[in-house]
Amino acid sequence: MLYLFTLYFILQNYEFYNYKQTLILQESENRFKTLFDEMPDPAWIIANNKFLEANYAAAKMLGYNNVDEIQYDHPSTLSPKYQPDGELSFDKAERYMAIAYEKGIYRFEWIHCHRDGSEFPVEVTLSAITLRNQPVLYCIWRDITERKQAESIMSKNIERNTILLKLTTETGMMNERELILFILGQAERLTGSPISFLHYYCADLGETIDVCSKNGMLLEINASPVQVDPELWMQSTKSGSAVIENQPQNQTLLSPQTSDIVLNNYIIVPFFNENESPIMLGLANKSAPYDLASINDLELLTHHLWLLIQQKRNTQELELNSRVFHSGNEGIMITDAHNKIVSVNNAFSIISGYSSDELIGQTPQILKSNRHDDTFFKKMWTSLHDIGLWHGEIWNKNKAGQIYPGWLSISVIRDKNNNIINYVAMHSDMSEYKAAEDKIKYLAHFDALTNLPNRTLLQDRANVALANAKRNKTSMALLFIDLDRFKNINDSLGHGIGDELLKLLAQRLLEELRDVDTVSRTGGDEFIAILPNTNSKGAVKVADKLLKSIAQVFEFGNHQLNVTLSIGIALYPDNGDNFDDLSRNADTALYRAKHNGRNRYQFFNDEMYLQAKKVQQVENGLRTAIEKDELVLYYQPQVDTMTGKIVGAETLIRWMHPNWGFVPPGDFIQIAEESGMIITIGDWVLRTAIKQLAMWKKAGLPLVSLSVNVSQPEFRQHHFADKVEALLTQFDINAEFLELEITESIAAVNITETIAILQDINARGIKLSIDDFGTGYSSLSYLKQFKVDKLKIDQSFIREIRSQHDDNPIVQSIIDLATNLGLKTIAEGVETEAQLSYLRDKQCDQIQGYLFSKPLAIAEFEKLLALDDRIIHLHELD
């Protein structure tokens, strides 16, 4: 017996242990999901080599409205067909994912595409993890566009410096023809142009000629230079300045008697010598547009070309060489074989702070910063002696004692006997590049607008504060802070004013908090504050201070703004023992503070947790409600006020859940809007309503106008009118039988855009009505510009009618306004004969309400449609 009892006890504890482990695993996955959704960097979960889940940051970076549009696809679908190395994106992605699974983590660079097709580089980190007992890849992106641009600029500078060095070191033994071909080839290489051409005075022929090169090869006819179309030179000759044409040209490069080369785009840069005999260098048919950088590169090459030509023709024109030497933006220093400085240009003097007189005769040691050890210089001299070239990043010290970063390229100049005669060093100041690099590092941890810590740094500090609180057994408060109705400020005054307000708000928050506290901007108008060693009493004190401080008028420029805050508070250890739990609970408390009227603070409690859990359950249920066929439409008749004849119906969505039963719209519509599912549900309602019209048409039932409510996100969709028209065409329904309802509050947002959308819908013959009229904030001055057909009088005004002889100025005013604008009116919520009599007396066009009919299921409504006269008689409803 003892043995059996012991065995039973072990089995019971084993089941309890398994159950507990399951709960721990579920909680861990929930925390991971919250962190995954809210992290600022784009993130994905890849399973079976397809995107299983993505966060909002990923959708936003790619230009999509929600994550549903970018899930369940192979990663290569968001990439160009080929990666820069020529490998198919699909094959390369498959290979890299296999490596990540094998190694556990794999980091690489990748080219992705925005929704509009534009490409951008990212750094991808793939980590192999286990999620829900399934091996998956956790993928994080970081946009490295700025870094690539900086690298491109640096690479471009190095390439330009290398070419300039080649002009100095490799052209000494060339004749004029070889020199020109060399220059044209370098110009093509530097700018990525397949064609180059030159107009200059040829001393050998005693005349001005043209020289044309294609991919580094001279174009000639019978061993003579070709002639470039003279029109190409005219504009540059007359203006004396560079000419850029980036549009396809209706002309060819060469004269008619030669083979044609059609110009797609071109650039021409002139240089006028002292005798006013111009030399002009041109490039054509680059795949990308020419820009100001192309002008700078071409001007530099043109100057050097002219210098070298003249040097070969007449050594007395070295003065021109000096001008070119000193006019460059790159610092140039020349030393002798013993490393004594013999010459510097003006740019080098500006960078170093030393004049040429102070430098000549010195060694480059004068610039030594002591940032580099002997090993660094030993490698430099080894490279110079072995290959005659060295380049790299170096830290120098200028005359003022300031240490600055630079990029240094050194070349060795040798004579015919291979003896070193000079060292030529070209120096670029990298201070701006380094500053940009530091800024990128700064932005990785701080918000660019307010200079407050971002979410990444906030979480690090929160973890430190929590660790201290656990060790010292103290409390900590986490505050979620949100501006009330900030969107109205952006919409009415513009995002520039909104940004200025956020910066001032950040300053006030910092002023009210202690040095040990951390306040972070996590996005939009949302801020989070960490208050170490703070209990509920201390949190209340801080929250009160913040509410009072922010309530003071904000003044900047000509604007004075009064704003308020809502604050949600979660405490350690009462409301969670980690950052994720505290954040979720503080956010829930913030939501309740806003729901309770804003301009207040709210502590988290268990009731809020249950409410949040219920919201999550409803949201999860909604995600499958359509495919499980749980949503249905009900129809509430709309009747003619005078005759009682059915003239239309409003479609009303209902949710019949298999476990919860009937779920009222008020319990799930707002959740659908906040979760982003309202567009999907709205699409289903619109399609179902139009499809129902088609079914009535096929069954021979009389058609009446169906009114469909449209939410703000649906109404603001791109090509919304196209979507509606396509459905009407698909089901062969005339537009006159569909009426779209938008609320007055929707119409009042972004009036200019609203007018444009309404005009587009109206032009397609689709009817429009404004719901809840009289309860919103729209300006009556805009109402006459709205292309709508009907105003719907809100039921709150109808309830106030007690008898036929009541005086209700609002209802009367709406009816009179509609009449003057040529619009119809419909009153909703009509429940008494007194209300009906009043509305008939005031000549309201249509009625909707329980006096005539409640919302009906499809079968019941079809019975009303089948009536011969479609007239609802009140006595028949008793």
Briefly, what is this?
Helix content is 43%, strand content 25%. With 878 residues, the chain is of the alpha+beta class. A hairpin with a 2-residue loop joins strand 8 (217-221) and strand 9 (224-225).
Descriptive account of the structure:
It is a single chain. The chain is an alpha+beta fold. The chain is 43% helix and 25% strand. It has an 8-stranded mixed beta barrel with strand order 25-26-28-29-30-31-32-33, surrounded by 4 helices. It is globular and about 115 Å long. The two termini are 74 Å apart.
Characteristic key phrases:
alpha+beta, 878 residues
Strand content: 15-25%
Structural class: alpha+beta
Distance between the termini: 74 Å
Instruction: Estimate the mean pLDDT confidence.
Output: 81
Name the helicity range.
40-55%
Morphology: globular
Can you list the strand order of the major beta sheet?
25-26-28-29-30-31-32-33
SSE layout and pairing:
Layout: H1 2-38, E1 43-47, E2 50-54, H2 56-62, H3 89-103, E3 105-113, E4 119-131, E5 134-143, H4 145-169, H5 176-191, E6 195-202, E7 207-214, E8 217-221, E9 224-225, H6 231-239, E10 243-245, E11 266-272, E12 278-284, H7 292-313, H8 318-327, E13 331-336, E14 341-344, H9 346-352, H10 356-359, H11 374-387, E15 389-397, E16 403-414, E17 420-429, H12 431-443, H13 455-472, E18 476-483, H14 486-493, H15 495-512, E19 518-523, E20 526-532, H16 536-551, E21 554-556, E22 559-561, E23 565-572, H17 579-595, E24 600-603, H18 606-625, E25 631-640, E26 646-657, E27 661-663, H19 669-675, H20 678-699, E28 705-709, H21 712-715, H22 720-730, E29 738-743, H23 744-747, H24 751-763, E30 767-773, H25 780-783, E31 790-793, H26 795-798, H27 809-821, E32 824-828, H28 833-841, E33 846-848, H29 858-865
Helix pairs in contact: 5-7, 7-8, 14-15, 15-16
